[in-house]
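A.,

Following up on our hallway conversation. Structure tokens first:
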């Protein structure tokens, strides 16, 4: 009833999605995105190794496009995130992903974003901020 009252034509959207899947476009899209995300993960991992100090651990969880970065215990990524926010750089400290606030020394990197020069520059600045926090 809600859809009839609002004039929204949901069945046409559902039919389009159905045709997209039935014609094999969905599986091609997923295969293509897997390749893109895999390549992105490799590039971002290289940037982490290049721009971050030694003493970090990078984990690549299966089935996604995020990297989990563990830093030495003395690094508080919540504080680093606040400093980076002033530079208009947003990061996801590990404590965001813990109900108890653990993993303050961890960081999640989204590799779905294309590895363009702008993102490389952000990784350089992030690495510099982590170096300062480790001193």
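Then the amino acids I'd put at each of the 135 positions:
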């Amino acid at each position: 009833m809600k859809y009839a009252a609002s004039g929204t034509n949901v069945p046409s959207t559902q039919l389009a999605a159905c045709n997209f899947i039935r014609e094999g476009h969905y599986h091609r899209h997923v295969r293509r995105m897997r390749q893109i995300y895999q390549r992105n993960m490799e590039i971002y991992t290289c940037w982490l190794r290049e721009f971050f100090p030694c003493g970090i651990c990078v984990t690549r969880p299966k089935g996604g496009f995020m990297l989990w970065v563990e830093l030495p215990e003395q690094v508080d990524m919540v504080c680093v995130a606040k400093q980076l926010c002033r530079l208009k750089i947003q990061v996801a400290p590990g404590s965001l992903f813990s109900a108890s606030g653990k993993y303050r020394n961890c960081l999640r990197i989204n590799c779905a974003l294309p590895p363009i020069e702008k993102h490389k520059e952000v990784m350089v600045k992030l690495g510099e901020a982590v170096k300062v926090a480790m001193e």
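The two ends are 62 Å apart (CA to CA). Curious whether your intuition agrees with the design.

B.
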